[in-house]
Amino acid sequence: MNIGIFTDTYYPQVSGVATSIKTLREQLEKQGHTAYIFTTTDPNVDKSIYERNIFRFSSIPFISFTDRRIAVRGLFHAYQVA
C-alpha cells in the first residue's frame, strides 16, 4: 500500500512528533508498504544526502515558533506523487 504522511516537522528536527513519524515510516516499510513523507525544508538537512520518498517543500519560519516551519508551496507536486 502507498501511504502519504504530511507533517511540518521531520528528522533531523528533535521532537516527539518527528521521532514518531520516522519510526512509523520505518515500521510501515518493514511491513512491505511504501511510505511517502511530505514535509517542510529544514536548514539543518544536508542537501547532498538523498532520502528516498522524502519530499521537502519550500518553507518559511513560523512567526510564533521560529524553530518550526510552514510550507509555502508544493501541494501540486504532492498531488502528482499521489
UniProtKB/TrEMBL annotation:
<dbReference type="GO" id="GO:0016740">
    <property type="term" value="F:transferase activity"/>
</dbReference>
<protein>
    <submittedName>
        <fullName>Glycosyltransferase family 4 protein</fullName>
    </submittedName>
</protein>
<keyword id="KW-0808">Transferase</keyword>
